[in-house]
Hints:
This protein has 494 residues and is α+β, with helices and mostly antiparallel strands. The protein contains 21 helices and 11 strands. It has helices at residues 2-24, 35-61, 64-73, 81-87, 99-110, 114-117, 154-175, 182-195, 198-211, 246-251, 256-274, 312-327, 330-339, 346-354, 358-363, 372-384, 386-395, 398-417, 423-444, 448-476, 478-493, and strands at 118-121, 127-128, 132-139, 144-150, 218-219, 232-236, 241-242, 276-278, 286-290, 297-301, 307-309.
Amino acid sequence: MARRALKLASFATVAAATTGFYLHSNKQLDPNDFGVVRVGRAVATVHLRSAKRLRDLCCANRGTFIKVGQHLGALDYLLPEEYTHTLKVLHSQAPQSSMEEIEQVIREDLGKEIKELFVSFEDAPLGAASLAQVHKAVLQDGRTVAVKVQHPKVQAQSAKDILLMEILLVAVKQIFPDFEFMWLVEEAKKNLPLELDFLNEGRNAEKVAHMLKSFDFLKVPKIYWELSTRRVLLMEFMEGGQVNDKAYMERNCINVNEISRNLGKLYSEMIFVNGFVHCDPHPGNVLVRKCPTTGKTHIILLDHGLYQDLTDNFRLDYCQLWQALIKADVKRVQKYSRRLGAGDLYPLFACMLTARSWESVNRGIDRSPVTAKEDVEIRSNAAAYLPQINKLLNNVPRQMLLLLKTNDLLRGIESALQTRASASSFLNMSRCCIRAVSTYQRSKSISLYRKTQISLSEALSLWQISLYELFLRLKGSQLGNWVIAFLSWMHHSS
């Protein structure tokens, strides 16, 4: 694959040089005459055609294939845009089970017909995903619920599908030695049995709701255990707009910056402090709404089948790494990247984590916003460094794989809301990292003096962050502009 890429690059260079000679003798410039443009368009067309075929394969085989297709669609740092853009539709346009199939699963698992359990049950699903679909219904006692029903054949086919994917990937690797995607099959083997058990999903929902109960903006649907099984999950019905729907937020007077800030708080708390992470935050699983009675904005977190438990050692190394990235401390970036399995590829690892160029990492990722030019550079480099990226993905701890996917999904939301790389998100991450490291250090310290010292250092660091945040808010406010203008006037007049 790398050899082919080099041949293609050489061909593009020759074509560009030839075209340059032609244009030198002609006054009118036509972009279609550029060799690079023509080659690039041809390559993009091949990628797009292959991506559509892959999407159609996933839709035809359903179940596990769609799940893997969704995962591939989130790998913005690894795959060409034609693949990620095409496969992203699998998050919201997965094939549906028929009403007869849904009735069959409910009958087998709950022992009753739909008419006996519900006053009403909407035939059209609210959403269809790779493993299940959700219907709105009303119970006999008047409660409105969301009924998540597993596609009937997923359980039986999942093991066969994973084996088939494993055989296909081994065959592809024989042709393209740089194509290292076995980690994807390994993750599917580990996670699918958990995602196919809806009782496990219900327990995850209750655990995260309790764990993050201090966040009054977070809403997690209540589980109705009396009517839930491994294939049927009954939940409190909650509705809202998708978290990436900026137009919905504008219509409902929802502040996109507040949503982005609160989503960052939520995930920073899960990743750095608790080590229990919801790993599927695609827009269909994260809704927003404004409460009509209180006027408060809520984030509704759905689909709790896929979580990652982080070990303390991994979590703390990850905290230290992000602190180093935010402070642009390259030596510590190198140290903690190596501890997380990146080895000599730590610059590439830092770029994958932040979706920023190495130049931006060195300068400080909170210093300047992401530009369109930098985004293009990241994608171009991803294609060029495919073997190194695959090597990294095979070397890092398995816990890192779902975090990389989660990071990319969250970045996609920030891009849609145009809040990406805002300073507030990095400040919230810094707070959580400081709290997590300090809590761990206190737990390992016997001396009361040392514990007090750690607490004072923690309080000072958090105070410094709050002071800096206040400065940024003043700087961006009308009052801040007046103060800056006044100080400037004082300086010039003196």
